[in-house]
Amino acid sequence: MSTIEVAGVAIDTRHYINGSRVESAETYVNTSPIDGSFLGDIARGGQREVDLAVAAAKAAFPGWAAMGPKSRGEKLLRLAELVEENVDVLANVETLDNGSLLRSHLRGVMPRVALNIRFFAEWAINELHHEPFETRGHTNVISWDPSGVAALITPWNAPLMLATWKIGPALAAGDTVVLKPAEWTPLTASLFADLTKQAGIPDGVFNVVFGYGAEAGAPLTAHPDVNRISFTGSVPTAKIIARAAADNLTPVSFELGGKSPLLVFADADLDLAATLAVEQYDNAGQVCLSGTRILVHESVADEFAEKFAAKAALIKQGDPRDPDTDIGPQIHQVHFDRIAGFVERAKAEGQNIVMGGGPNEELGGLYFRPTLVRNPTPGAEIVTHEIFGPVLNMQTFTSDEQALEMANGTEFGLAAVVVSGDRDHAERITKFLVAGTIWVNCFFVRDLRAPFGGSKKSGIGRDGGTWSFDFYADVKNTVFAPNGWKDK
Q1: Candidates 255, 303, 362, 411; catalytic one
Q2: What global pTM score does this model have?
Q3: At residue 41, what are phi and psi to the nearest 5 degrees?
Q4: For this structure, is 84 an active site residue?
Q5: 261-440 CATH fold
Q6: From the candidates 94, 183, 215, 288, which is the catalytic residue?
């Protein structure tokens, strides 16, 4: 069957290529993490479908690029309007598909999808500009030219919203797109493709190929007609993509893993610190930015731990469609088992698990209880590896120097949270933290005008504002001589 019904919505499960739906010889099964229910059979793409999609994108590129930012922007603004008109539909489908909270999808995530599209369309029209400058009387003029076909490979933890962080600037820059969404969460990408059609985006400009990474993602990233590759996911997968891209010298942008610190200093508001720490369980811990390593000054550690425990006890885990639920299920059995493996190995090592530590027996299925490991052994696997689940560590430090050494002591550098009551103190600390984004006395405040990305093995490149266009476009400098012109 090519069409399924999810949350009362008809969804085409075939690829979207050159403005039409394309079947595959094989399909794969998609289930809901909420209760394991069958959602539908999804087209399982490979080399054939990738070749078709890239060819369509390549053929559509000259016309889309020639339209210019204003004409492209008008279509993208219409696309943003269509997303806003379909927030309820998209939210309900994505909740069933990836298990995140329905209230979050309705209030924040899906409206942000529209914002992403609108922001980059308007930025390309109004903000993408560099003032000309003189060199010995010669005039330098900077421009951002469309680069070609962009291959976008996106994750499952906020599928459509994270995809549009890439789709928005790529299309606004004048690139054409082949999207390969995560195989566990394909449904809103299909609905989004329908919305691009309604918005009048020309056939071939936006394409979607469903399937597994090894079967669809690999030929896409190795394709010689792909001009940009943007990937959000794990470090091991990024290494595979980088090797494939290297053969064609295709530029890459990677937003990868994190093992971010949340530093609580002695001068901190401990109620605020505990609130921010408990927020790290958001989306069942399936957030790359989460401050999963809580580092607390030893003088306030016990008081902080008491406040944390009291706030964590109020977390309600359950069906994400219930408006009172705070944490839903993990995305898939494979991922659930991975999280459980980390915790079981920590138990075997004798680590001090003071909260949670296993499945929620009352709920069954893919619900893993919020977990806290206190004073784990420095360098232990559970301290250094990204778990991507509701598992936090709490360690203590005695000085700023030790706090910084611990905070910077992993291979990651995606984000950090600093909680301090002294502005000067906080500023001194942030100067020495290795991270792409640092939040001080707050968490998860993101402005699309700001750069976003990771340091060390947390990524390559930056998204946001002009930084996005620096990647999705060919930045060109044209130098005009002051003479040699014929009089008119």
Answers
A1: 255
A2: 0.97
A3: -95, 130
A4: no
A5: Aldehyde Dehydrogenase; Chain A, domain 2 (3.40.309)
A6: 288
